[in-house]
Specification:
5-stranded antiparallel β-sheet; single chain; alpha+beta; two-stranded antiparallel ribbon; binds cobalt (II) ion; 24% strand
Length: 173
């Protein structure tokens, strides 16, 4: 049975760290991604990066099926060592993050991205993504580089975020 793991939330310094490449593709990796999906579903997210559960490895899971749209089909994407190799266009989307619970802000992103990654068994693959998947990939890959969506917004919005955070969130225990 997959486990629900504890989420690392802002301002935990782990979220600022750069994640290491995965070079062992074993059963433990599969178990970890199963637990990441379980954790993501439990918290009603559509994407989760390993640093968010305190593991500094380049692992991302995505399933765009959301609570609001239960009829949308569920597709589990696992991206090991994902890297954006090309991108085009621009778009904006109101993003949230399981590591910054309760906060949403419009973020500017590339409209399309091409991502090289490895599968659970280490097989090299490429995906060309647009729409929500492209946005989600950029958000999650940022996590692997120690970047949060609140780092990707304007100075004015950052100031707003900090005062929102002071008001709404107590310090992590
Ligand atoms: Co996030």
């Amino acid at each position: 049975m997959a486990k629900v793991l504890k989420l690392v939330t802002y301002p935990n310094p782990l979220l600022k760290k750069i994640s290491e490449k995965v070079d062992v593709f074993d059963d433990k990796l599969k178990t970890l991604t199963d637990d990441m999906f379980e954790t993501m579903y439990k918290n009603k997210g559509i994407g989760l990066a390993a640093p968010q559960i305190g593991v500094l490895k380049q692992i991302v899971v995505i399933d765009l099926q959301s609570e609001e749209d239960e009829n949308a089909s569920s597709k589990q994407y696992v991206f090991i060592n994902p890297k954006i190799v090309s991108s085009s266009g621009s778009t904006t989307f109101e993003e949230g993050c399981l590591s910054v619970p309760g906060y949403h802000e419009i973020v500017k992103r590339k409209e399309k991205v091409t991502v090289n990654y490895q599968g659970l068994k280490g097989k090299e693959q490429t995906i060309e993504a647009d729409g929500l998947l492209a946005i989600c990939l950029q958000h999650e890959i940022d996590h692997l580089n120690g970047i949060l969506f609140v780092d990707q917004i304007s100075k004015i919005k950052k100031t707003f975020f900090r005062s929102w955070f002071k008001k709404n969130c107590k310090k992590e225990e």
